[in-house]
Structure formats: C-alpha cells, structure tokens
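Tokens in:
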C-alpha cells in the first residue's frame, strides 16, 4: 500500500489520534481493558504524522532501541507485515510496552513534534502493530547457529524475558527460572488485567519459549539451588539475575498488622496471579463490597491498587498521598483514568497510626495534614506535618503502596556478590556485570523499583555483554 506524499506542514496539521477507551461508568466495575487500541485507519493516520527525521531522537529515547524511525513510516504506508517484523526483531515484549511504558518520558518525550505540537503516539502504534502481528500468528524471528553455551536467567520479569530472548536469538541455550507458578514477574502479578490482559503476557512469553528458551517455574534460586550451584554443578556458563524487587516496604506505624491492612504486593498478587476477584478464589482478598478503601502512595502501583479496589466493589476508593497531586510519580494517564472512574485523590496527608476494634480489625486511620517546604537540590519540595492538624479517617481496608526492595535470599546465599546498602546488586552500569565472575544482573534487582522498559533495556545490555564474553571464552 502507498500513501499520498504530504509536506511536513500538512503532517503537523494532523491532530494526534486519541486512544479509544472503555466508558468509565462501565470499566470501574469490570476488569476489561481500559484502552481499546487503534483500528487500522486510525493507526495509519497517526503514523502519517511522523516527520521521518534524519536523526530521529525518538530512537535515542527508547531504552531498548526500537527502530521507531523504520516501523512508523511502514504503518503509514499500510505495510503492517514489514512494520511488525521490525518491531518483533527489536522488542520481545512489544505488546506489553505499548500498554504500560511511560512513552511520554521517553520516545514520545524526545519526538520533535513535542516542541510545538503533540508527539507522535509511538506507544499506541507499537501496541497496534504488536496486536496485529499476534492475531496473525506472529512474525518469524530467526535465531543464530547454536553456540554450545548455556545461560541461566533468574527471574521471568521484563529484564529476564528480554535477556533470555536476545540470548536465544544469538544461538545460546537458555533456561529461565521463575520462583512463582506462572511466568511474567511483575507483568503477571503486579499489573492489573484492565491495563495488561493476561493473555497478552502469556502470548509474549510463549513467543520467547518458541525461540527455544526452557522455562522452569516454582524454582526459587537461592533456596532450591544457589547461583554457585547453577555455575558449578548444573554446568551453566553464565547467569543473569533479573529477580526484581518484590519485597514490600512498610510505613512503620502502629497498627500495620491489623486485619484489613495489606501491602500492594500482597493485594495485587492475590488479585492478578491468584484470581482473587473470582467468587471461587482459594486466596481471596478482604471482602471489599461496599467498603471504604484507602491506598497510601502516589505511584503507578498505588493507582493500580486503588482502581483494583474499586473494581472489587469498594464504595469509596481513596488515594492518600503526602505530597501534592502534581508531585505524584504515577503516569498522568493513570491519574486521569483513576479520577474518571471515581477514585478520590487526597493530597498532603500522612498516616500516623492504624486503629482497630477488639477483634484486631482495621476501623480507621489517624492522619496528619502536611505542608510543602522549600525545594531540595533536585527541585522537589519536601513536606512537613502541620501542627495541630491531626484527624481520624474511618476506613475498612488499607493498602500500603510506597515502594519495594529486593528480596534478600540471593544476598544471603551468594556471599561474593556485592550489594548496596539498599540490598540491590552492584553492577557495571554499561554492561550489567556484577562483582562475581560469570554473573550479570539488571532490572529492579539493580535499580530498585523502576519501569518495565528500563528493566528491558538492562536485560538487552547484559545479553550483549554475555554473548561477547561467551564468544571470547572469558
């Protein structure tokens, strides 16, 4: 297919095409996907807005180096098969990235149209072409000749999946170890169905397995086997650690052990991975129908938690955050979606104590109002309590969503693997090499809780270095 040639001025005159969404009145009580995706006509029109820059800054803004400058013009020309092939070669998790990556801060933020207009909707186009490709069986991806080298990848989240896919394409024999009973890491247990359908995750993992990657679930490395076991007893030539940051952080206030208080990790894992939203679930969450639920935090995980509570029947679903709404680290789209669904945002408040009844069940939280202070070196303003502003807020359930830390299992069982004071693994930032020979790491286990796409970028860099080391015999 071909399109009529347009001048840059004509392209810039085309408005950015909005993503169709499920009506808020419907979606607030269902787990159906909120963003409905482009149709072919809309995708072509949006892709036509691309100016085909000679030195495309969008590619530099992508942590995994997707050749945006090549696949977007192909969509504009209607050559979906060729566009899908390019995306499949660059990104093993394209349908996921198109849904959950913060494109506004990366590829789209770097788009030259963002200076005076609105950037090309690169994320929406990536999602469109990945979905189009998946529905037709997927583009073939070639793998290199077998090298005879074996690599163990610990953790099947975005860093591990990306590293495993790249290594398999290079011809290495890869085994992926996952601690839980389903692969996907945070993609499976941390992101709700309405943002990232489970069938999309399953399809992406399946395509990686089709490259020849072996998957072992219920395999807790550091317990059933150590990293040394993988290297010295199981015969792996290298190990990549992408086990994430699944250890929840707590508020450290009285009453946090009351029935009805949970961390976002526990809450979302039960709902997403163990299907606690079903009436026949064997691991349910607390009964939320008609309740008042407070979520403490302002990031994407907090938004996921509060919107999930709403879908589980909460009468009131409230975000309580110690800074302003403008300071919330959550994506603007997620905040807007939450508000449209009826989530209440209460800024500049902090919890002091959870209160319960004689049976040890949560009934309220004692709060204090906060005020902004002067900006710090980064420009962010701190907060401090307002004297005499304490108040009691009645709630039935609370979810603590203030961040995560790495699980300490590997640190306890691999003494020669250096860690920071935060429990993250020390690596060379360029290639992911750790202080232990033959061992590499990337993703949240290195950075602490971050984004899917940054973890993927770390996986790609480590895979490239592992490949080079194995071919050099070092």
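Residues out:
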């Amino acid at each position: 297919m071909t399109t009529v040639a347009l001048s840059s001025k004509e392209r810039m005159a085309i408005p950015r095409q909005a993503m169709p969404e499920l009506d808020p009145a419907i979606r607030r009580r269902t787990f159906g996907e909120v963003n409905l995706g482009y149709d072919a006509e809309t995708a072509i029109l949006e892709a036509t807005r691309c100016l085909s820059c000679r030195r495309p800054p969008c590619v530099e803004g992508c942590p995994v180096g997707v050749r945006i400058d090549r696949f977007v013009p192909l969509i504009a020309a209607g050559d979906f098969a060729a566009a899908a092939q390019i995306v499949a070669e660059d990104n093993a998790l394209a349908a996921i990235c198109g849904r959950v990556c913060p494109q506004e801060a990366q590829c789209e933020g770097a788009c030259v149209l963002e200076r005076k207009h609105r950037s090309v909707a690169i994320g929406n186009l990536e999602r469109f072409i990945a979905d189009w490709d998946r529905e037709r069986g997927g583009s073939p991806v070639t793998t290199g000749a077998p090298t005879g080298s074996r690599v163990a990848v610990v953790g099947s989240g975005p860093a591990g999946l990306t590293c495993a896919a790249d290594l398999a394409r290079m011809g290495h024999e890869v085994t992926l170890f996952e601690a839980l009973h389903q692969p996907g890491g945070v993609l499976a247990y941390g992101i709700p169905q309405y943002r990232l359908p489970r069938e999309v995750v399953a399809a992406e993992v399946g395509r990686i397995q089709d490259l020849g990657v072996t998957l072992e679930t219920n395999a807790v490395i550091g317990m059933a086997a150590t990293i040394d076991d993988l290297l010295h007893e199981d015969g792996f030539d290298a190990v990549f650690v992408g086990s994430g940051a699944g250890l929840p952080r707590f508020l450290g206030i009285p009453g946090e052990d009351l029935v009805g208080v949970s961390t976002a990790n526990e809450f979302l894992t039960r709902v997403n991975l163990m299907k606690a939203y079903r009436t026949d679930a064997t691991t349910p969450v607390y009964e939320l129908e008609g309740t008042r639920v407070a979520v403490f935090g302002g990031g994407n995980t907090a938004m996921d938690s509060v919107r999930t509570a709403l879908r589980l029947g909460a009468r009131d679903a409230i975000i309580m955050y110690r800074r302003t709404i403008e300071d919330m680290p959550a994506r603007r789209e997620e905040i807007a979606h939450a508000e449209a669904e009826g989530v209440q945002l209460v800024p500049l408040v902090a919890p002091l104590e959870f209160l319960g009844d004689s049976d040890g069940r949560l009934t309220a939280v004692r709060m204090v109002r906060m005020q902004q202070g002067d900006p710090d070196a980064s420009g962010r303003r701190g907060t401090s309590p307002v004297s005499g502003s304490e108040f009691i807020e009645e709630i039935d359930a609370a979810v603590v969503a203030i961040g995560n830390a790495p699980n300490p299992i590997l640190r306890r069982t691999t003494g020669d693997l250096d860690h920071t004071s935060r429990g993250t693994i020390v690596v060379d930032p360029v290639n992911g090499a750790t202080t232990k020979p033959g061992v590499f790491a990337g993703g949240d286990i290195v950075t602490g809780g971050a984004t899917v796409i940054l973890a993927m970028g770390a996986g790609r860099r480590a895979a490239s270095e592992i490949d080079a080391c194995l071919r050099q015999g070092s």
